[in-house]
């Protein structure tokens, strides 16, 4: 989707009343706490997380809703997204009618690099740099390109029917909602339906279509330190290395944060817009539910998380490929992460992963290229 991106931002902190008997003059937070409680009571704000059973009931039942993950664990959030998509009901009788079960999911991940299901790990990221800077590597359960996530980036996922889906639809809505919030924001769409801020990419997208449904998931850069991400994702062409692979290419772009107050600000804008545009004829307010990995969990989400964490999924999947290290005259063929052919004796049958883990082999082939 993009190649220069986000970084970690400050997390919100919550102040709890310590129940000590201190006057309001010496403890001004007590008044703030009371005011916040009044606002919560007035607007019925409830951040209680769904249980695993409640999530299953909400997702498998008809109707529209918004779901916000309070977890920053990328394994949980990607598994949750997959679960909501798979479990969302779609009627075979729906043709061109408006889909009644739209869902909108938000989550924010801690530091990680995420590649697409059909990508080659070593073609997309510098594993040594990710490891050195403590970034998790994940292979998502859907397609698309390589991206970097952090706490300054909002991930959104819009679920609809296959019949209603088209690639620019939801990002067009986001641009409309942003302009409704602030008509001076210089946000546009390019030909790929990426969201641009002042001409630079602030949001990329990928899509999945299956079982009569589709989802459009994307990212919005809000307050990321973009400079921290240089050197994590690889350029399309690196001198001295030639790849021959059907791996899905990532799109390299100049990127920018969008000028909003916070990640919550962006989510609130989208929630307001979604509730307005998708309320339907009955005018019922679309509910917002919350979840986290401690409470909102079940066997299926756990199973997907375990798959995402497994080295077999991360490194021994993806398309077969040939790679040539031209300066060293080294030629390698690889399938499912295993070297099937090589002009260096002793490497056939070994995992390609050893080329960056085994420092001696790594140096002999092509230092600093993994």
Topology:
Blueprint: H1 29-43, H2 52-60, E1 65-69, H3 74-87, E2 103-107, E3 112-115, H4 121-124, H5 127-132, E4 136-139, E5 147-149, E6 153-161, H6 169-181, E7 187-189, E8 195-197, E9 200-203, E10 205-210, E11 213-221, E12 241-244, H7 263-277, E13 288-291, H8 299-309, H9 311-315, E14 321-325, E15 330-335, E16 338-342, H10 354-357, H11 359-366
Parallel strand pairs: 1-2, 1-13, 3-4
Antiparallel strand pairs: 2-6, 3-5, 6-11, 7-8, 8-9, 10-11, 12-14, 14-15, 15-16
Helix pairs in contact: 3-8, 6-7
Number of strands: 16
The best one-word shape is globular
Instruction: Name the helix and strand elements from N-terminus to C-terminus, one letter apiece.
Output: HHEHEEHHEEEHEEEEEEHEHHEEEHH
How would you sum up the major sheet?
A: 6 strands, mixed
Order of adjacent strands in the largest pleated sheet: 10-11-6-2-1-13
Q: Beta-sheet strand percentage?
A: 15-25%
Percent helix range = 25-40%
Low-confidence stretches: 1-30, 39-44
Structural class: alpha+beta
Alpha-carbon Rg, integer: 23 Å
Q: Termini, distance in Å?
A: 20 Å
- Give the helix tally: 11
Average of per-residue pLDDT values: 83
How is this structure best described in words?
With 370 residues, this protein is α+β, with helices and mostly antiparallel strands. 28% of the residues lie in helices and 21% in strands. The chain contains eleven helices and 16 strands. The strands form four sheets. A six-stranded mixed beta sheet has the order 10-11-6-2-1-13, with helices on both faces. A four-stranded antiparallel beta sheet has the order 12-14-15-16, with no helix packed on it. β10 and β11 form a beta hairpin. It is globular. The model is unreliable at 1-30 and 39-44 (pLDDT under 50).
